[in-house]
């Protein structure tokens, strides 16, 4: 897959079959549209093209609103789109100036002049241009003027999948990582850097990798203990993870800490990726470190049973 960073890098893609959107999470509903794009491009002997906007439009239009959390970074999204089989990913910088572009300007400047779109395939509720004024009806009405075909994925086709990015966020915030997995077609992941902690885990035989997220806008699942897989230096390992405030040791800040099973290496400052497999239990306050240690032994046994 070729990634084009900005519309200035686009130069007439051969027989371009195009779709556009934020595609946060690239869930199975998105994948239905994307696979249709890939199939149509292959049939026409052309190239499949995804236009996506970064940063997320809400971050630009409502900079003081930090409530929106995303399921995927741009890099994660790109990797998934490549797996789906997309030929070109166009990263359009969403800026205040770009947000003022009318739907007609967007179509003419980007879809026609830059890409040379032959066919545009969009979901039933997709809108574009200033104030989301552009719609499927608008595109159909002006299709002869712009000289490309337009196809809408019917509402029923998308609704039958029953998935949305909002539903996935809700599942994660409830700790239902299994449902999120079903909706996304893969485990939910976060990536960060291993940083130094208070080393209390090491004192009780459960050393942890404290993870500082690389993207502050990522959804963090519900506080509690999870069975997870971690990727580190290209290798996947079994582990368990705690998200929360560590009430037993009177923690103040919310932390994300992973205990990698049968692993002793120093991995400070290294990048680590966590795949959430199953929620095991809520975060608890124990009477002593000994009691916490006993529970961690149970957590490890039960997590290994899930993972293996």
TrEMBL record:
Residues 183-308 form the Riboflavin kinase domain. It is an enzyme of class 2 (transferase). Pathway: Cofactor biosynthesis; FAD biosynthesis; FAD from FMN: step 1/1; Cofactor biosynthesis; FMN biosynthesis; FMN from riboflavin (ATP route): step 1/1. Its EC number is 2.7.1.26, 2.7.7.2. GO terms for biological process: FAD biosynthetic process; FMN biosynthetic process; riboflavin biosynthetic process. The keyword Nucleotide-binding applies. Coiled coil: none annotated. It catalyses: FMN + ATP + H(+) = FAD + diphosphate; riboflavin + ATP = FMN + ADP + H(+). SMART domains: Flavokinase (SM00904). Keywords: ATP-binding, FAD, Flavoprotein, FMN, Kinase, Multifunctional enzyme, Nucleotide-binding, Nucleotidyltransferase, Transferase. One of its GO terms (molecular function) is ATP binding. Catalyzes the phosphorylation of riboflavin to FMN followed by the adenylation of FMN to FAD. NCBIfam families: PRK05627.1-3, PRK05627.1-5, ribF. Belongs to the ribF family. This is Riboflavin biosynthesis protein.
